[in-house]
Specification:
Elements lengths: L3 E4 L21 E4 L4 E3 L7 H10 L5 H11 L2 E4 L2 E4 L4 E7 L2 H6 L1 E2 L5 E4 L13 E6 L5 E3 L4 E9 L24
Antiparallel strand pairs: 1-5, 2-11, 3-10, 4-9, 6-8, 6-11, 7-9
The protein binds deoxyuridine-5'-triphosphate and magnesium ion.
Length: 179
């Protein structure tokens, strides 16, 4: 066993498709969304009003502020998939190039870095999520099973000083190691 994909246990009975390549020399394994999701356009809220209000400390209703925070925060699309790989390998999650062009969907972290020690971590079993922000003018509906991003396995290198820093055991993702 070198590297590959498995369905995380909470999706065991949902007939998810493991990531796959669509052409002979495709580098990326396409990941599907595990759930139907609506990704609201960041322009949907009264964006300028909220920004103006915050900046000038004028009245903005708690509702407007809540909506602003919700819509401006990236959404995490669950894939229901975990990836195993050799310890010197990493899985890079990249956007599909058609996503920004056709649907205004961007991956705000640029790329996702899926560490080998994320697999089966005690916090979330290593489920891979795709961060998405919709900068388009329409809300976007993502169907369950729709391809949303691609994963590329790569080897990575260590710096000469690598053993100087103590290593922790990974217990989750998205800031689990602190700030
Ligand atoms: O798009 C992504 C990026 C990361 N991850 C998971 C896998 C990765 O191993 C873990 C940690 O990612 P990263 O190190 O980039 O984020 P962090 O903010 O430094 O979190 P942590 O403190 O958990 O390392 O989160 C995803 O599922 N999707
Ligand atoms: Mg990290």
């Amino acid at each position: 066993m070198e590297r590959g994909f498995e369905v995380v246990s909470k999706y065991a009975n949902e007939q998810l498709t493991l990531p796959y390549r669509t052409t002979q020399n495709a580098a990326g394994y396409d990941f599907q969304s595990a759930k139907e999701m609506i990704i609201p356009s960041i322009w949907k809220l009264n964006f300028l009003k909220v920004l103006w209000a915050i900046r000038h400390e004028t009245a903005v209703t708690p509702d407007e502020l809540e909506k602003a925070k919700r819509v401006l925060k990236p959404f995490l699309i669950p894939t229901g998939i975990k990836a195993y790989m050799n310890p010197n390998e990493v899985l890079i999650i990249a956007n599909r190039s058609s996503n920004p062009l056709k649907r205004g969907l961007t991956i705000p972290n640029g790329i996702g870095v899926i560490d080998a020690d994320y697999y089966n971590n005690e916090g979330n079993e290593g489920e891979i999520f795709v961060q998405i922000l919709n900068f388009g003018i329409r809300d976007i509906q993502i169907a369950k099973g729709e391809r949303i991003a691609q994963g590329i396995f790569m080897p990575y290198l260590l710096a000469d000083q690598d053993d100087q820093a103590q290593k922790k055991t990974r217990s989750g993702g998205f800031g689990s190691s602190g700030r």
